[in-house]
Design goal:
It contains ten helices and 13 strands. The chain is of the alpha/beta class and about 350 residues long. Strands 8-11-6-7-9-10 form a six-stranded mixed sheet, with no helix packed on it. It has a five-stranded parallel sheet with strand order 1-2-3-4-5. Helix 2 packs across helix 3 and helix 3 packs across helix 5. The longest helix has 21 residues.
Length: about 350
């Protein structure tokens, strides 16, 4: 609020009260006037997608948002203390890695209907509708192992959907609805927001991991590569059995002539690059060049989304450094590598 951000997305009627209390507190601490906090109410459009269930956020079974039955009550509550908060918008988010445009358009139409109802019932003209994020990333640009994934995983992970397509389809549906209701003037006054998030940052990140150990199982014929990147670095690979394409960083152009079982360094049997539960959600083997040896650096592609934010020092493993490679090729350290002392810095003995 002190920073004057565009809008605070409020997730429940109770949170309206919390924002009001925060405004009062900030005004007392600053001992000066402070403009009302701008808020948008996050609504649940009750729409499913073809993403993972854990990534679908527009269902009544999701923990997020205000349900349709409470929409009017929540806006009436938000209008009670205009000196503290200014209700300026609606926020929706259908989920992450949504492969189809239809859920976005359907959600926008639902929110547009709410916007018209709110205007009719309260006289409030909202300033914006925030479509949230969920624009997918194509994790399967290299299709060499795509056929080893289930069809629904393939469709989701290999989705191609541009933000411009989402916006144009959402606006088309909303304009038809506005025209039918003779309310196009309301649509013309609304700013449409989009949070592209993953679709920008995922492709910008690569996790580099070094092969630390190699072992062979004569009984099964498997060759195992043990790396220094476990699910403490890539939590989604464990939580959602997320597929990050793996290549040899130094031999990316060589033919993929060998199959390897790949695993991380953690003291956990689930710290593997395949589906340990044998549900087929990840390939059983990773294809790499022949004769991968300890010391070789591998790269997990399209891993810029969530990886840094979700890292944790499980097994007492210091977290890695992060490097920004700029447009001209200049590399800058943007996060230093943890030390063992960093693991203990907040402990009190």
């Amino acid at each position: 609020m002190r920073a004057g951000i565009y809008s605070i997305n409020v997730d429940s009627i109770y949170e309206i009260e919390l924002v009001e209390e925060a405004v009062r507190r900030a005004r007392n601490e600053l001992n000066s006037g402070m403009p009302p906090a701008r808020i948008a109410l996050r609504l649940v459009p009750e729409i499913g997608t073809r993403s993972h269930l854990g990534l679908q956020t527009a269902l009544l079974t999701s923990k997020f948002g205000i349900s349709s039955s409470e929409v009017l009550d929540s806006f009436r509550r938000g209008l009670q203390n205009p000196e503290l908060i200014h209700v300026c918008g609606i926020h929706i988010h259908v989920g992450s890695q949504t492969p189809d445009v239809e859920p976005f358009a359907e959600a926008f139409k639902s929110m547009w209907t709410h916007l018209m109802t709110i205007h009719r019932e309260t006289g409030l003209t909202l300033e914006h509708i925030n479509l949230g994020g969920g624009i997918p990333v194509n994790y399967l640009r290299d299709r060499s192992q795509a056929d080893q994934l289930p069809e629904h995983e393939r469709d989701m992970l290999g989705a191609e959907l541009e933000p411009a397509t989402v916006l144009s389809e959402a606006l088309r549906v909303a304009r038809e609805s506005a025209r039918d209701a003779e309310a196009e003037h309301l649509l013309d006054q609304v700013t449409i927001l989009l949070e592209p998030g993953r679709s920008i940052i995922a492709d910008a990140g690569v996790v580099l991991t070094r092969v630390q150990n190699i072992k062979r199982r004569p009984e099964t014929g498997d060759v195992w590569l043990l790396t220094d990147a476990g699910y403490n670095i890539l939590l989604s690979m464990n939580n959602y059995k997320w597929y990050y394409h793996l290549i040899s960083a130094s031999r990316a152009c060589e033919s993929l002539a060998a199959e390897y079982k790949v695993a991380g360094p953690l003291c956990d049997s689930g710290d593997v690059y395949f589906d340990i539960e044998r549900h087929g959600r990840l390939p059983d083997y990773r294809l790499l060049p022949r004769d991968v040896k300890p010391g070789e650096v591998l790269a997990l592609l399209n891993s810029g989304a969530y990886s840094l934010a979700q890292m944790f020092p499980y097994n007492g493993r210091p977290l890695p450094a992060a490097v920004m490679v700029r447009e001209a090729g200049k590399a800058d350290l943007i996060r230093k590598r943890d030390t063992y002392e960093d693991l203990l810095v907040n402990d009190i003995w």
